[in-house]
Specification:
heterodimer, B: 70% helix
């Protein structure tokens, strides 16, 4: 049973890593975003393998389902839709590589520093509890459940949680403010029926969004 | 099921797990596809009668073999890909869509039978529904067709907007039952002789209505079928698909609708619970629960067909306004009133004043009717008040728009 888990782990991490590399090497930017989604789903599958179901589902909901979709949406609205190849690799790619490696090292080194000595002990403990209970998460390595996560948000990590919420609220209000300002400065564009009704009654000329007088349909046809 | 394989056939553990999972997956896949075939026939017949027509009635008795004829027809059609299309993305789009749909079937409780009891089942359903959007976007972009792209864009905007009320509409139920697992949500509704369904509480009823409407948008049912609006943008994101690929989109669409009916029936209408299930017990009780479950799900599908035959398609701006200005405030208020509901019904040590006023909280056998009555009154008041207020605000805005004078119109105000 344990070998199957190892094999599945290797396959999933290979998928995640390969898609991660493809994100930065593929030339077409839309393909790159799609590979990013594949990488997110690979991470979610790894969470599932660790029996962290809530984390896996939230990973799919937030990253694969919302963030990357918005990324794709933004790319499609701002770029040429045909998706011509854009060069993703510039001359100073090695700077990016160094930065990435340093960040990765900064994350992985303390973990190894602290837990490195415990690996063998943890592995034997996991083996022993699996053979003892037959299934389920091994004792001592219990995965945080949804209730644990919720409680730590509301007690231990309340302040960071609230600060993040306020940050998101600020972003929301800012977006609304920008959109509202632009909208109030813009005039309503009339429908053809409204325009026609106005002309029938001989009232002032209709205007377009910038406030310029719209030429009547007959005048346009006469030209 | 794993134990059965191990004990009866003496299979080793890994083989038993593989066999059991294979059997489950096969049953779900076959059941989903057969269900989709039935639904297409049923919907066309039902809508035909609502529109004073006959519907398909030539192939087989009452036209019931029509889906098979159509499947053969689509399989023999030519499979074309546009010359300028992104071939890989174009090919993968229906695959992604169908995969996302089939995955949702993993958590559906069939009466008292549970294929897999995920501890976050409800959230899983919504999260996987989000992957549906991905398929839509891939189809829209990969086809290299402006109508397909428009359809894909519309689809994404719609799905992202309606996902929010959909998730939030389930929160009251999660608060009331204290779990996100489908199995335990269904089991928690077995009180009152099998009629303790969530929909019978005011909070549950509001949540049911909001969830069902948001799900209609997620499943692209007709008032919300903006991504494939055939009178505006040909066929939306599936414009460039032919033959079996087109059929796969169709299959995914109907299977999503089927899954929505099943999930709504399980969360709000008690799943397999009904009078007589617990009393019978055993195999007969399980069979009865399956029958109840299918009746509820098909009833919901009938409502979907009824809505399709009645309501015309919304405009894009109306669609967005409905999600953000109408559904979202109501859903938020409903979460508040569900928290009050839980407090009034259950709090004992946390708020002793409740115990002084209304007596000790009831148990499953002897519910405290005073507490129940107060909770019903309070939540109905809050929810109806919110409904009236939101409707009034929306109505005022639309009235103001309607009564624009000609001079204001001419100035473009």
């Amino acid at each position: 049973m344990n070998y199957i888990v190892v094999v599945i782990f290797l396959i999933l991490s290979a998928i995640t890593l390969v898609s991660g590399v493809m994100v930065v090497t593929v030339k077409n930017i839309i393909h790159s975003a799609l590979w990013l989604i594949a990488s997110f789903i690979g991470v979610a599958a790894l969470y599932l393998l660790m029996e962290a179901e809530f984390l896996a589902v939230v990973q799919i909901l937030v990253y694969a389902g919302a963030v990357s979709i918005l990324v794709l949406f933004a790319i499609m609205l701002t770029r040429h839709v045909t998706g011509e190849g854009t060069r993703m690799l510039y001359e100073r790619w090695w700077v990016a590589l160094v930065v990435a490696l340093v960040l990765f090292g900064a994350v992985i080194t303390p973990t190894i520093w602290q837990q490195g000595a415990n690996w063998d002990a943890a592995a034997t403990a996991a083996q022993a509890s699996i053979t003892a209970t037959g299934e389920g998460s091994p004792a001592g390595t219990a995965v945080a459940s949804t209730i644990n996560i919720g409680e730590s948000f509301m007690r231990e990590y309340l302040l960071p949680f609230e600060i993040a919420s306020v940050l998101l609220l600020m972003a929301l209000i800012g977006a609304i403010a920008i959109a509202f300002e632009e909208r109030t400065g813009r005039r309503r564009v009339l429908t053809l029926a409204e325009e026609y009704a106005l002309k029938q009654r001989g009232i002032v000329e209709p205007r377009d969004a910038e406030g310029a007088v719209v030429p009547s349909i007959e005048a346009e046809q006469a030209l | 099921m794993v134990e059965t394989f191990q004990q009866t056939f003496g299979a080793p553990l890994w083989l038993a797990v593989v066999l059991a999972s294979g059997l489950k997956v096969t049953l779900i896949l076959v059941g989903g596809s057969l269900g989709m075939m039935f639904l297409t026939w049923y919907e066309r017949r039902a809508i035909a009668y609502m529109q004073d027509r006959r519907g398909p009635n030539r192939v087989g008795p009452q036209g019931s073999l029509q889906p098979i004829a159509e499947a053969i027809k689509t399989m023999t059609k030519e499979d074309t890909t546009p010359l300028e299309a992104d071939r890989v993305v174009h090919f993968l789009a229906p695959v992604v869509m169908l995969a996302a749909t089939v995955l949702t079937f993993a958590i559906i409780p069939w009466g008292n039978l549970f294929p897999s009891d995920l501890s976050v089942g409800v959230l899983f359903f919504v999260a996987i529904g989000g992957l549906h959007t991905l398929g839509m976007l891939m189809a829209g972009w990969g086809s290299n067709n402006k109508f397909a792209l428009l359809g894909g864009m519309r689809g994404v905007a719609q799905m992202v907007s309606y996902e929010i009320p959909q998730v939030m509409a389930v929160i009251p139920i999660v608060l009331m039952t204290g779990t996100m697992s489908m199995q335990r949500i269904v089991e928690s509704q077995s009180g009152f002789g099998g009629l303790g369904w969530n929909v019978f509480t005011p909070v549950g009823f509001f949540a049911f209505a909001l969830f069902f409407v948001a799900s209609l948008a997620e499943g692209e049912r007709t008032p919300f079928d903006i991504p494939e609006a055939d009178s505006e943008i040909v066929a939306g994101y599936m414009t460039e698909y032919t033959g079996m690929k087109f059929a796969v989109f169709y299959l995914a669409n109907y299977m999503t609708n089927l899954a929505i009916c099943f999930i709504t029936a399980s969360i709000f209408l008690g799943g397999g619970n009904g009078p007589g299930v617990n009393e019978l017990g055993g195999f007969l009780g399980g069979f009865l629960s399956l029958i109840y479950f299918f009746i509820k799900a098909l009833f919901l599908f009938f409502i979907m067909v009824l809505i399709r035959a009645t309501v015309p398609r919304l405009r894009v701006d109306q669609l967005m306004g409905f999600a953000w200005k109408f559904l979202l405030p109501l859903v938020l208020v409903n979460i508040l009133s569900s928290a009050l509901w839980v407090a009034i019904i259950r709090w004992d040590q946390q708020a002793q004043i409740f115990t002084q006023w209304f007596g000790a909280p009831g148990t499953a056998d002897a519910p405290n009717f005073v507490r129940l009555g107060v909770a019903v009154a309070v939540t109905i008041m809050i929810n109806l008040g919110a409904l009236v207020m939101v409707m009034g605000l929306n109505n005022r805005a639309s009235q103001a728009r309607m009564h624009t004078t000609d001079e204001e119109l001419a100035l473009g105000l």
